[in-house]
Amino acid sequence: MDDDQEQTPPPPTQPTHTGSPTDFLKGVVGKRVIVRLTSGVDYRGVLSCLDGYMNIALEQTEEHVNGVVTNRYGDAFIRGNNVLYISAAEAL
Amino acid sequence: METSSIQEPFDLIRLSLSERVFVKLRGDRELTGILHAYDGHMNLIMSDVEETIMIVDEATTAVNVRDDDHEISRLIIEQVAKRKVEMLFVRGDGVILVSHRNSVLCALPLKSKQVSPPSRT
Amino acid sequence: MASQILPLELIDKCIGSRIWVVMKNDREFTGTLLGFDDFVNMVLEDVTEYETTAEGRTKKSLAQTLLNGNNICMVGTFLLLPYFALMPRQLIPGSDGPDASS
Q1: Which of A25, A81, C60, C99 is buried most deeply by CB count within 10 Å?
Q2: Binary contact (C55, B65; C-beta < 8 A)
Q3: Distance from C60 to chain B by nearest Cα, in Å?
Q4: In the prediction, which pLDDT does B109 show?
């Protein structure tokens, strides 16, 4: 897995049109999400919070590998550089 | 865990200080141990650490894809190396996930964790 | 050089359109672009994720999704040019995505 250039500074906070990553993240906190890592592993859970590096705190987390639940965590911290995407798993 | 006390992801780590934590690392490695310190890179200092290294044989895995054979699955599972380390520094860029080891929810035995045949649907 | 269009301006013009995102690895996404930031992290809607493996291409539908810009390689639109028709496996203008021709 290539892990070269990390996103060092937190994202700029300039106000943009709705639909920006910042707006999406504001809307998705507290909701059920799927966090996909670049390795292909999925974490499904309730997004408690995240920061500008896309570090993520998840609650009621299930780890899915190829569609199979391989682990469960009460709370999990996921380091942002591994994140491929964060997808809403319920209506926003 | 008091959810309201978590404002940012690192709070989760802060609340785990002096506790036994589970750390998932790149390269199919896992650690459990007492978390003593961390920083913004997620560099960690841990003690009383048990490291688990999953040795996933690519060839064996490939066979496992084609037929979902129990024998083969078991073969993969048993290729696990463990070792204990008294005190450990973990470089942050290898960290994938940090969680509580003593959580009721994360009680799945190690054996069943690695079964997960890489089936493609 | 003042009249030169910046790459991110072009992406800005894609907001509201369906786009096609190719990652550094064997993964592709299509979806409607809702927004992006300076890192080209993108918010997409009605997303389909494609993963090309030895066993073939897998497909997965996703709702609103924030795609990490770190792993993005290329971004294409569905409207632009017959240029894309030169890539038979991937994109044909007006098609539904990378798997439409397979």
Answers
A1: A81
A2: yes
A3: 10
A4: 44
C-beta atoms surrounding A49 within 10 Å? 20
d(CA A27, CA A11): 17
> How near does any CA of chain B get to the CA of A49, in Å?
6
Place of tokens 């992006």: C36
| A78 vs B6: CA distance, rounded Å | 14
Residue with tokens 């292909």: A40
CA B11, CA B7: separation in Å to the nearest integer? Answer: 7
> What is the structure's pLDDT at B7?
87
Backbone phi, psi, residue C58, to 5°: -105, 155
For residue range B84-115, list pLDDT tens digits in order.
999 999 999 999 999 987 544 444 444 444 44
pLDDT of residue C56: 86
Is the CB of residue B121 less than 8 Å away from at least one CB of chain C? Answer: yes
In this prediction the pTM is: 0.75
Residue B84, strand partner residues: B50
Question: Across the interface, do C55 and B121 touch by the CB < 8 Å criterion?
Answer: no
Question: Would you say the ipTM is above 0.95?
Answer: no
Q: What residues have CB less than 8 Å from B76, skipping those under 6 apart?
A: B56, B57, B60, B61, B64, B114
